[in-house]
Amino acid sequence: xxxxxxxxxxxxxxxxxxxxxxxxxxxxxxxxxxxxxxxxxxxxxxxxxxxxxxxxxxxxxxxxxxxxxxxxxxxxxxxxxxxxxxxxxxxxxxxxxxxxxxxxxxxxxxxxxxxxxxxxxxxxxxxxxxxxxxxxxxxxxxxxxxxxxxxxxxxxxxxxxx
Length: 162
What we know:
There is one protein chain. This protein is an alpha+beta fold. The protein has a single domain, classed as Beta Barrel (FomD barrel-like fold), CATH 2.40.380.10. Helices cover 20% and strands 49% of the residues. The chain contains three helices and ten strands, in the order E-E-E-E-E-E-E-E-E-E-H-H-H. The strands form two sheets. A seven-stranded mixed β-barrel has the order 1-2-3-6-7-8-9. A hairpin with a 3-residue loop joins strand 1 and strand 2. The model has no long low-confidence stretch (mean pLDDT 97).
């Protein structure tokens, strides 16, 4: 079974693809995909964590303001969790739509977490691509996730079951 993903990025970038469904739990869809089309690998704290060819198991939480990607290298080694801060996650049948709010969090297997792309969010505000409410909302979601991580309440349990 496939799920159609529509991943929107302000102001007008849209990524669409069909991914293999691993599990459809209704309010959580788990799908498998591959990183492709990256111009450069992603490094966090000096460590390469994502590059083309790596695989992801992603968890789309319907109605939530985040998704979670479990990242694996070509050898199947777990590299960490990548969390997108989202305005929304909606589902209609076999289509999931998300709107990205720039901020991301990477969590290493040892639990160290890093907030990413603050510069992109700041630029979006400065250039009028987003308003102050959207800016503040993105930070509030990111702060909540980071706090939940510290308390051991994030990610949701389902992430460790797959």
